[in-house]
Amino acid sequence: MAGNTARNGRQDRRREDRRRQDRRFPSWAVRATAAAACGTLALTACGSTKDIGATGAKGDGKVGVILPLLTSPFWQSYNDYVPKMATSQGVDALKTVNSNSDPSQQITDINNELNQGVKGLVVAPLDSAAIQAGLDQAERKGVPVVAVDVAPDKGKVAMVVRADNVAYGEKACQYLGAHIGSGKVVQIMGDLASVNGRDRSEAFRSCVRKNFPKLKVLEIPAKWESDAAASKLDTLLNANPDIRGIYMQAGGVYLAPTLQTLKSKKMLKTADTAGHIVVVSNDGIPQEYEAIRKGEIDATVSQPADAYAKYGMYYIKAAMQGRTFKPGPTDHGSTIVTLPSGILEDQLPAPLVTKDNVDDPELWGNTVR
After folding, report:
1. 132-140 vs 103-115: helix crossing angle, rounded to 10
2. How many of the other CB atoms lie within 10 Å of CB of 301?
């Protein structure tokens, strides 16, 4: 009985304390205070511009930058732009890491950067499917990733910074079709494990089928490898000496071996010369521009190495700050689109370069020393 009496006394005191608390802070006031706090949070988390969402943390911290390879002049140029663009965007980027054309090594490189405590990653994937393992590692550690040049098939990225690779194949097709009309053309393809190789290849084929049925497409799967391009082109030209056009999906790795192979067979003739093979490339490196000026090749699509570096840094800083983006036009002349995977991609402009505009000082390939 004594225990019950004490217990009842404590309960009476607690009820009295709650009544005094309610008189000072009525429940409606508590609810109003909570609602106001949530409203403030909601305003912070919602974007008001056409492409920029919320601003969260300061976005400080080291950023790792992983390259696919450095044997191509295109990637060498991108590598040179990275520290400059990191500085201009206020990003603390570590020294770049070269995965040396090895998708497995690239996953290891991602893991090594994460173990160093980076707060963001900018990665140019080698393999659109294999990169998922690295993206999953980053997601588990809460580290945002921006993909440059190649879109992953799966995995979480804050943004893909890339030009429209379907347009690459279509522009090459339209140029060759307009300047040849009929005959055999060669497509020297990239790695079909990469969405870039797939997009360019299928776009070129489809455009030819639809618009230029008198062209016959012969294909060389070269996997972004110069040696493979050279040996397979040599074999193909032996069997088809009447080739009239060539589409190289990557001038950075295919230009030199293609010109050397044509030269060795005495098939390298300048534009406006009888027997000239019309050549269209992709990349926009200085070596391609020089070849256009010499008349050795006819056109290239300028893949924006400078803009890849700039907006790779821009988007990783935004992601580290908690900012988000929506599909639609941007303020830098591009369009953000939603890929079939649900990932957002900022499709940067990639102009066709010919002898008519090859000296344009605005082309990044004309700014490289």
Report:
1. 10
2. 27
Rounded to whole angstroms, the Cα distance separating 114 from 107 reads 11
Cβ 365 vs Cβ 289: under 8 Å: yes
**CB contact burial 17-37 (16+ within 10 A = b; e otherwise):** eeeeeeeeeeeeeeeeeeeee
Percent of the chain whose predicted confidence (pLDDT) is above 70: 84
Report the distance separating Cα 244 and Cα 277, nearest Å. 5
Q: How far apart are CA 187 and CA 247, in angstroms?
A: 5
Residue 307's contacts (CB-CB under 8 Å, 6 or more residues apart) are 161, 332, 348, 364
Amino acid at 338: T
Residue type, 218: L
Structure tokens at 242: 């009447």
Q: At what angle do helices 286-294 and 251-264 cross, to 10 degrees?
A: 30
Burial pattern 164-203, b for ≥16 Cβ within 10 A else e, equals: bbbbbbbbbbbbbbeebeeebbbbbbbbebbbbbbbbbeb
* CA–CA dist 309, 304 (Å, integer): 9
| Residue 250 CB-density burial (10 A; 0-12 exposed, 13-18 middle, 19+ buried) | buried
CA pair distance 347, 164, nearest whole angstrom: 6
- Which neighbouring-strand residues pair with 161? 148, 346
pTM confidence score: 0.81
Write out pLDDT tens, residues 12-57.
444 444 444 443 333 333 333 333 333 332 323 332 234 443 334 5
Partners of 302 in the β-ladder: 283
250 residue type, one letter:
A
Q: How far apart are CA 189 and CA 223, in angstroms?
A: 7
